[in-house]
Structure formats: C-alpha cells, structure tokens
Amino acid sequence: MKKFLKLFVAFTAIGSLVSCDATVDDESLPAPVDASKIDISVTADATNLVTMKNNTPGTIAYWEYKDAAGNLMGTSNLTEAKVMFPFKGTYDVFFTAYSKGGAVPAEPVSITLENTNESYFAAPEWEMLSKKVEGKTWVVDMSSPIGWAGLDYPYNPSGSDAWSWLPTYAEASWAMPDKNWGEMTFDLDGAYNVSVTQTALNDDTQTTKTGTFSFDIAKHKMKFNGGVEMLYGGDYHPDCSDWTTLNVIELTETSMRLAVIRDQSRTGEGKCQIVFHFKPKE
User: Fold this and answer.
1) What are phi and psi of 16, to 5 degrees?
2) Helix (H) and strand (E) counts for the chain?
C-alpha cells in the first residue's frame, strides 16, 4: 500500500508539470532612436576648445573626431566632451547614439577653426617630445631598452604595486637582440603627426605606418590613432592586447620611457607595465 501511494504521488507530480501551460517570453526590444530626434551640439571657443554635447534623452554618446585628411584624432563616450583642437583647419565630428534599441549614427558635423592656438604648446614636454613643428625622431636605447614595473609606478609611489626593474642591457641581454629596431617620429606640423618604422623580430624587414597621436601631459598618457602602434623591441607583442594606449613613464630632452600593459602574458605572469626606453636619433 505504501509503495502504491509513493507511485501515485510521483505520477501526479509529473502530470502536473506536463499539464502546465508553456510561457513564451516574447518581450521585444524597444525601437531604435529616431535619427531625426538626435540632438547634439558642436561648438568652439576662441582658444579652439571644442565642446561636443549630446542632448538626446535616453542615449549614451559615442564621439569620433577626424581632421580634414580623415585621420582619427580621438574618441569619447562622455555626454559632454571638451577637446582641444589646437591647429587651424576643418574637422569632422561623428556622433552615434546608443540605446536599448541599438546604435544610430547622426550626420557628421564639420567645424572650421581659423587660427592655431600656439599657447597650447607652451609646456616644455611638447618641445622635448617633438621639437614642435620641426619634428623629433626616437630610437630604442639599447643601453637599457626594456624594463618592467607595477601599475602604480611611478606616479603613485605609496601604492601597493609601485615596484620597478629597469635594467641595463648588460644586466638583461636575454630580453631582446641588440639591433636596429626602427624609429618613431613625432611632429606638430599642422597636426599631431606620428610615424613608426618597426623592424621585424627575426630579420631586418621594416614596416612604416603613419597616423596621429594625443598626449595628455597632466595624466601622463599618450594615444596613437590610425593603426599606428608604439615602436618596440623583442618578442613582446603577444603579451599585450593594446599597443596604442601608452603610459608616459619618463620624458626629457634625451630620454623617453613609454609603457604598455602586459595583460595576456604567455607565461602566466600577472598584469604589469612593460617599459620601453627610447633616445633621440643621432
């Protein structure tokens, strides 16, 4: 009798599950933003500071801005982005509105600046980096070409990850072959111009790419645009996913150290900065 009752309860439970009506989740996403409803403004003041503002309700902004030659100067996802365009010329600002319904681009906005803001380049770092309009070429300094550092180095010395090891080549000759790894040239001749000639790892084949860069002196950050990557030596490219977003570790007239983040180490090591050392080309 007890066995019969257990079977009856089991079959009853199964039956109740089978007899339940299926519920279909047919909730659909909202419609994309109507392109005609996109409301943005792009204005410039007398110093060439350009303000890009998204006034479209319920959207997330994405901005791209390019010079007259189509070179990408930078991007932003701020609702109100303020960017200095110090050089005279015509620029195109592209906006995309993101919402739950998807991405909707707006018509690009062109803005023409009549004068170059020379005072913007008064900081000595611009002269150190590029000699301004004249241009300056850097090569890998093989006396101490590479080092490693924690993510707090060097601007947060009290942080928990502020270690560094910047050896001489004699101390770490295993790090890379001693050869000409190419060169990297910066100039401010009408735009933030950068050119990188990279030597291959296993032979002397060289590839040159040109593009633009941005340099945030206060934040010690540099960014390459247009498909250009930082000059480097050795077999380190697979260890980093991003060779265009750079930390400026050191910049003087005779020495520059730029770092990328090792975020996909092939040997299982933790995240850190790989610091490459450059000197002016003689």
Assistant:
1) -65, -35
2) 2, 18
